[in-house]
Amino acid sequence: MRTGSEPVTARSALRLRFWLSAWGLIWAVAGTVAFVLAGRPGWAAACAVLWLLVTVDMAMIVRHIRQGPHYQPGRDVPPYEPVDERPAPRPPRPPTQRPSKPSHP
What we know:
The chain is an all-alpha fold.
């Protein structure tokens, strides 16, 4: 359930993601260089693809960090109502009319 304090207490892990990506970038570059020097082109290509992915991820993280905080509702916005887990009551059935029985002569 939302309490209404989330915009005040919410924190982003973008800086942590940035440093983890930097760590991955170091290992991807080192792996690419090591496998090129060892004569393993397949593994070097795999590390180069990883290097490219980490670089794109870092660019997106830096972009998000530079965008700054996004709109979040202030204290004047009330919290959401809690979700009622009970099923809605069924409306009563209309009375049914039984067909009249035919009379036989």
